[in-house]
């Protein structure tokens, strides 16, 4: 795996890509989804399989060892929501935290 030079490792929602960023929740995953091109990579058919497995888990046992790697997501905004000069970051989303 080739890295863009910057790596983000946010905790992620096990069943919802980008967590609650569409309703403006303020956590790490949502902030990254709002501030970069990371969210579209979570909506691909391949990545949706990752979430489908967790949504169909009737025991809600989300402690799996799978990760989602987004190579070279473009970061466009800072934590305050201000535009920044775009730069690439790799994002490795892990799920299943308590």
From TrEMBL:
Coiled coil: none annotated. Residues 13-78 form the Microbial-type PARG catalytic domain. InterPro entries: CHP02452, Macro_dom-like, PARG_cat_microbial. This is Microbial-type PARG catalytic domain-containing protein. It comes from Rhizopogon vesiculosus.
